[in-house]
Queue: 2 jobs
Job 1
Amino acid sequence: MIGSRVLVAGASGDIGQALIRLLAPNCAKLGAHYCENRVPLDMFAEEAQLDQEHFALFGSDLSDQESCHRLVDSYAAWAGGIDALVQLTGTVTKPVPWEGLSEDEWNADLRVNLNGPFFLAQRAMAHMKVGGGRVVLASTASAQHGGGTNTLGYGVAKAGVECLVKCLARDGAPHGILVNAVAPGFIQTQFHTRRAQKNAAALKKRAELVPLKRAGLPEDVARLIEYLLSAGGNYITGECMAVSGGDWL
Ligand SMILES: NC(=O)c1ccc[n+]([C@@H]2O[C@H](COP(=O)([O-])OP(=O)(O)OC[C@H]3O[C@@H](n4cnc5c(N)ncnc54)[C@H](OP(=O)(O)O)[C@@H]3O)[C@@H](O)[C@H]2O)c1
């Protein structure tokens, strides 16, 4: 692992939990962020017998600049700096056809899915200007295909994340800061049930559309992120990498 001070925003989500399981054995200072759901992180800390010197929890809503900057600063104060930021936060405010979205709902999608990642990266990169670092943001494979009818604000925000990655990678390069995104396809997580409110039949139908004929597992995405944080990622920046089982081919 490059450096060992890693902050995972959205660690309480399913992909986030898979990632901290992979990272914990090699991280000197692993910061795990949650918004409403702290329980899985407490359970993991207990199960893996992680002490407070190596593993710390940070709770906050990350919809505005102040809260994003506060999270990164709190983590850096605890860890003595930051080598890597992984952003896995995301939600769909209201899964309805775009014709019916209000301005507030549209803005809420952009705040969590675009503003949050930007302001997290903005602050993390300020800390990384001395010593370099890695930033990995979360897009979605569907951002390249017009998003979903019921999740358009989310898709537009994720397309914005892909633009962010290119600018931040270009400007981070002279400081040794590498910036990339992962673009999950259809991954089997609570995102689809709790947030996008899809039922079992819709999930089954969606998985059948994937060339590999299954939904991805949270670990499928977590392993790519782990790779980007490792020496394997030393010469990769400005990329948005799909983990989608061949979806959209
Ligand atoms: N699953 C997929 O098929 C898929 C596909 C494409 C892209 N992605 C992206 O991959 C990332 C991880 O997804 P996942 O499947 O692991 O989703 P998930 O299980 O629903 O996790 C979402 C995470 O975002 C956090 N979050 C939600 N709203 C927030 C807010 N306002 N402020 C701060 N944190 C907030 C949640 O915190 P709490 O749970 O603590 O509230 C949770 O940690 C997301 O960016 C998602 O958009 C997922």
Job 2
Amino acid sequence: MIDILVTGAYGQLGSEIKELSSNYPHYRFDFTDADTLDISDEQNIKSYFENFKPQVLINCAAYTAVDKAEEEITFAELINVHAPANLARQCNSIDALLIHVSTDYVFSGKAFQPYKESDITDPVSVYGKTKLDGENAIRANSKKSIIIRTSWLYSYYGKNFVKTMLKLAHDRGELRVIADQIGSPTYAADLAKVILDIIPQSMKIQTNETFHYTNEGVLSWYDFAVAIMELSGLKCKVTPIETKDYPTPAARPSYSVMNKSKIKSTFGVEIPYWRHSLKLCITRLFRLS
Ligand SMILES: NC(=O)c1ccc[n+]([C@@H]2O[C@H](COP(=O)([O-])OP(=O)(O)OC[C@H]3O[C@@H](n4cnc5c(N)ncnc54)[C@H](OP(=O)(O)O)[C@@H]3O)[C@@H](O)[C@H]2O)c1
């Protein structure tokens, strides 16, 4: 039996991990969120670790409001930098493995080929900078950790682009969606399964390692919106626009495709194609709504 603490368990990723957890009878989970285990409360985290001594911590908790982070810098730093640093110290103190999730927004978006884990980071937003600083704080405070960078996360749970497009398609006759930001979506259920699958192999790793994981395929937000309409059977016109026509407080990388060779070769992971996973999520949304 492996004892696993999941923080931020009511978010998109945490909820998908919870949903899959019964498929892993050799794992014993403790699912927590801000109301039961606030990761920024150092004293609370310390006493949790003293009392329960998890072997693995999957940190799904984060400050994820990309635009609001431009204003709420101190709060975003508390959750995305200082809290992960403390989680790393606590894991280190009992030799537990920390699995942490980061983002494609650590990159500038100026590349022309998929980013590798070793490529230079240069975030263009406060959120991206806090996530990068959080990664570095973990590496500085931990002997063994797995940091998984993902992008364009969506799920049956929580707020995300897929659910927003479906709602807007009902409310409006036409959607205008950015066509000059290129990346790869990630179905949180796929990422959740990978995280759970790689735990036994990850526990043997004695270093700080970074991996990239998204669904396979490369597309723009516009392409993604068109596919959402097609797969859901909604007859809503989608018009491509440029980033300059949809100004947001935080800048986004214009190209954030990530190279996934390392996670595939290290763990033998097979990654689903984005459209296949999108179809599964939309089916689930329509079936259960
Ligand atoms: N969403 C994306 O498109 C995306 C893209 C790339 C990477 N990521 C990364 O992927 C990870 C998972 O993202 P997600 O989309 O699942 O996030 P999410 O849906 O926003 O969930 C985050 C969870 O963390 C909780 N939380 C916030 N502050 C906390 C605290 N102090 N203590 C404990 N829990 C706290 C939130 O609770 P409340 O709701 O109560 O605040 C929420 O349940 C994050 O690290 C994120 O940075 C996300």
